Each structure stands twice: as C-alpha cells, then as structure tokens.
Amino acid sequence: MASSTPQNLLDGRTAVITGAAQGIGFEIARCFVDAGARVVLGDLNLDAASAAADKLGGPEVARAVRCNVTDAGEMDTLLADAVDSFGSLDVMVNNAGITRDATMRTMSEEDFDLVVSVHLKGTWNGTRKAAAIMREAKRGAIVNISSLSGKVGMVGQTNYSAAKAGIVGMSKAAAKEMAHHGVRVNAIQPGLIRSAMTEAMPQKAWDQKMAEIPMQRAGEVDEVASVALFLASDMSSYMTGTVLEVTGGRFM
C-alpha cells in the first residue's frame, strides 16, 4: 500500500531490529536496507533470521544474531555485533514480541510473566543498552513497537495490553532522559496489520475488528515499516517521546 521507500534516508547508518526474522520486524529491516542502512537482525530463531538476512542481501548489508531479548547479556552481544561489523549503532528497533492470549480467569502466571518479560523487559533491555552506546556518539534513534492494545486494552490480553502500555510509558521516560544526549526515543502503535499471526484469527474475530476500522481494511506490514523509517531518519529530527498510531483510524 505504501509508496516505495525513499532512497538514502539511512545511508551509512546501522540499525538493529529485534524479532526481525518475519512479520513487521522483517519488513522494517527490508525497508531500512532499501533506504541505505546496514541491518542486524536479532531473533530467537537463528535459522529464520539467517534466511531473512540472506534475502536482504547477505553479510555486506544484513547480519543475523540469535538473541533472547529478556537476557541483557544477549542484548549486549547483539548490539556489539552491529558496532563490530558495521562500525556504529544509529538506530534501534525494539520489535520482538509474543502473545499468550487468555482471559484473566484462565491465564497462567507463567503466561503473564513471559509476555511482560519479552515485550516490556525486552524493550527496556534494548532501549537502555542501545542508549548507552548512542549517547557516546551524541546521536541515535530508538523506535519501540507498542500496540493499539496498549491504548485501549483488549479482551484476553491483560498481559499483552499491560506490556504494550508499559512500552509507551517507558519510551517517554527514556526520551526525557536521553534528549540532551542527542538520542530520540519514539513508539509506534500498530492496529490490525495483516500478518501470519493475525490471519490465523477466527473469521468472526477478524470481522469484528474490521468493523471498528474507519478505513475499512487491515494495514499492511510495509505501512508500519514506513513509519518506523520516518522515526529512524532525520525526517523526524525534532520528535521524541511521541506515539504514532498506525491503525486506519481505529479507536481514535
């Protein structure tokens, strides 16, 4: 749906994207490469991340690193790979996430902890570790992927909605801490985006969500990626601590 990627917006820059083997994360990586960036794809599934990196042009422009974002040491390794391989860390996209949907009555404590850990602690690890490197360079852009679920709360997602709302608060707090160091921190809240995950939804649930969207269609992954590119680039140079909704107008 979105137009082709503007050339050269990220020329000479290095970006790290977590959860980048598929879906929105992979599309962000592809969009960044098209804009001139070199990318490091962090993912729990190294085989899938390696295949994704090959699709993007191989080791000259895209590298794959296995990373469990809840582990600060593995996050250090991921970011060090970017700096060692490509010479800098200019953009960090914290996208990795999982769902374990269930009503509060049936949700296990483990599934609550796991979702909060991957989304919220994972994004915290990525934000704080990237910020520590970027402040030395006195520049950098961090883009955190929240969700519309973090704005309105969704049935069966007390864990996911809590984590995604937390990412907004964390991004704003980090933006205030890092602004005078030249590091910007912004968040994106996608709505219903067509992906393998959402297409597995029961038809009834899909139809219900579609009825809530003024633009009357689901979003495509490239429509999230182009907003991530905007926040990663100098086009948004005077923006920090913002939350951009990519929702087709759902729940305005």
TrEMBL record:
What is the protein's name according to its record?
A: 3-oxoacyl-ACP reductase FabG
Q: Which SUPFAM superfamilies match?
A: NAD(P)-binding Rossmann-fold domains
Family assignment from sequence similarity = Belongs to the short-chain dehydrogenases/reductases (SDR) family.
A Pfam family of the record is adh_short_C2
- Keyword Oxidoreductase, does the record have it? yes
Output the NCBIfam families linked to this UniProt entry. Answer: PRK05653.1-3, PRK07231.1
Stated EC number for the protein is 1.1.1.100
Highest taxon of the source?
Answer: Bacteria
Keywords recorded for this protein, A-Z = Oxidoreductase
Which molecular-function annotations from GO does this UniProt entry contain? 3-oxoacyl-[acyl-carrier-protein] reductase (NADPH) activity
Q: Which residues form the Ketoreductase domain?
A: 13-196
- Which enzyme type, at the first EC level? oxidoreductase
